[in-house]
Amino acid sequence: MGMAVRDEGSKVNSNINVTPMVDVMLVLLIIFMVITPMLQNKVNVDLAKADNPTAMPDADKEDAIVVAVTRDGQVYLGQNKITDAELGPKVRDMLSDKPGKTIFVRADARAQFRAVEDAIDAVRTAGVDKVGLLTQKREAGSPGGVI
After folding, report:
1. Which burial class, exposed, middle or buried, applies to 6 when counting CB atoms under 10 A from its CB (0-12, 13-18, 19+)?
2. What is residue 55's predicted lDDT score, i.e. its pLDDT?
3. Is residue 96 classed as helix, strand or coil in its secondary structure?
4. What is the structure's pLDDT at 13?
5. What gap in Å lies between CA 97 and CA 115, rounded to an integer?
6. How large a percentage of the chain has pLDDT more than 90?
7. Which residues, at least 6 apart from 82, have a Cβ–Cβ distance to it below 8 Å?
8. Hey, is 75 helix, strand or coil?
9. Which residues on neighbouring strands pair with residue 137, listed in sequence order?
10. Which residue ranges form the domains of the chain, and what is each CATH number?
11. Are 134 and 106 in contact (CB under 8 A)?
């Protein structure tokens, strides 16, 4: 009688299927691409529009010190809400090891001028020489003139 020999070893596939891994990686990439712009740590203000704004790329860096003044006159240092009296000492503490650094002010277009002026005065009395006012470039079709 003959013996039946099964040749199962020749049917084994030793290749790794990477398609599921690629699918998971693409989904993660899309998720991170959508989420990353939402993670910006900025206070939401409607910046004033200017015809010829000066580019200030240092304002987007992580170590930039940004003071925001909202429409209702609230002052934020980074993401933290503070009072005008606290602004000067906190800025002085942040700049103790970085003299000569520029402080950026993001003021809402409809904020009262007095609140913006008080914030700039508090920063200047803290010993800051360079203050940058952040604005947006006016669109080509938008109306100009006095607001």
Report:
1. exposed
2. 85
3. coil
4. 73
5. 28
6. 29
7. 75, 76, 90
8. strand
9. 50
10. 49-137 (3.30.420.270)
11. yes
Q: Where do we find the tokens 């609230």?
A: 74
> For residue 77, how many other CB atoms are within 10 A of its CB?
20
Q: What is the mean pLDDT of residues 94-114?
A: 86
CA gap 25, 87 in Å, rounded: 44
Does residue 28 carry a pLDDT above 90? Answer: yes
Write the single-letter amino acid at 77: L
pLDDT in tens, 120-133: 999 998 888 889 98
CB 53 within 8 A of CB 135: yes
Q: Residue 51 CA to chain centroid, in angstroms?
A: 23
Please state, in angstroms and rounded to a whole number, the distance separating the CA atoms of residues 17 and 108: 54
Q: Where does the chain show beta strands of DSSP type E?
A: 49-50, 65-69, 75-77, 80-82, 103-107, 131-133, 136-137
**pLDDT reported for residue 45:** 86
Q: Please give the model's pTM, rounded to 2 decimal places.
A: 0.64
Distances (CA, A) of 2 to 5, 7, 33, 129: 9, 15, 64, 98
Q: What is Dmax (Cα atoms) for the chain?
A: 106
